[in-house]
Amino acid sequence: MRWRAFAGECPEIAAPAEERFRRDQLLLVGTIREDGSPRISPNECDLAAGELFFGMMWQSRKARDLGRDARCVLHSVPSDKDNPGGDVKLYGRAVDVRDPDLRRVYREAIKARIDWEPEEPNYHCFAMDVESAAYIVFGDDRRVTTWDGERGLRRLPFPE
């Protein structure tokens, strides 16, 4: 499900995810390379029009990964070894955004954030289709919260 639907279905994970992604303006994208091995890459992100967008340079390796296999994971950027903000993990598929209106919204979001925007058509724009998610908090307030469309929201015991 796209970001707006996920945020309505699971605010317990979507709210801290949105706060982190807006603050950090960055996330980690896990993709699957052509040989089947994993790739992890830092990537800027923007939330606009009910979508979680992440763009990439034209024909970058990670964009080509997603063109072959749309499965991906988006992970918040840890602040330090203690990571007081916790880890947000979104699992699902990258949707190649081709709609001109959504691409315009994406470019406007970037322009508002960093006073720059990519030129059409020389970039990739993806939106996240969330299939499952997790939010793990460490320290004194340790907790694990997970969500998927089949089982819904679950609070799991923190591994000892």
Structural features, described:
With 160 residues, the chain is of the alpha+beta class. 28% of the residues lie in helices and 41% in strands. It has one domain: Electron Transport, Fmn-binding Protein, Chain A (Pnp Oxidase, Chain A), CATH 2.30.110.10. The radius of gyration is 16 Å and the shape is globular. Strands 1, 2, 3, 4, 5, 6, 7, 8 and 9 form a 9-stranded antiparallel beta sheet that branches.
Features:
9 strands; single chain; Pnp Oxidase, Chain A; alpha+beta; 160 residues; globular; nine-stranded antiparallel β-sheet
What is the fold-level CATH name, i.e. the topology?
A: Pnp Oxidase, Chain A
Quick one: overall form? globular
How many helices does DSSP assign? 4
| Helical fraction | 25-40%
CATH architecture: Roll
Mean pLDDT: 96
Classify the beta-strand content into a percent band.
Answer: 35-45%
- CATH class division: Mainly Beta
Question: Structural class of the helix and strand makeup?
Answer: alpha+beta
Radius of gyration using CA atoms only: 16 Å
The low-pLDDT segments are: none
Number of domains: 1
